Amino acid sequence: MGFDAEMSRFCGRTARVKAGANRCVDERSGRMLTMKNPCIILENIWCEGAFMANCPRQYVCWWREIWLERVESGPGRG
């Protein structure tokens, strides 16, 4: 799992964590894979196909925690 061009559009934005993921299905084999390092799913962040020939899938982007910067909650941040 890597950082792709589609994900670069969201750099510098603030988003809430929606969920963590530690398993995924390998589309080629159909096998369930367990990740060594869990990924983060962010609210309202998904692939719009801008860099992949307008792919209509709108898959959820999975982020490595090391790629993200934690923002402390405070007034107005919920």
Keyword list:
3-stranded antiparallel beta sheet, 1 helix, single chain, 78 residues, mainly beta
Question: What can be said about this structure in brief?
Answer:
With 78 residues, this protein is mostly beta strands. The protein contains one helix and three strands, in the order H-E-E-E. The mean pLDDT is 83.
- Overall, the morphology is globular
User: Low-confidence spans: pLDDT under 50, at least 5 residues?
Assistant: none
| Average pLDDT figure | 83
Helical content class: under 10%
- Estimate nothing, just give the exact number of structural domains: 1
Distance between the termini: 31 Å
Find the structural class using helix and strand composition: mainly beta
How would you characterize this protein structure?
This protein is mainly beta. It has one domain. The protein has one helix at residues 5-8, and strands at 17-25, 32-46, 60-64. Strands 1-2-3 form a three-stranded antiparallel β-sheet, with no helix packed on it.
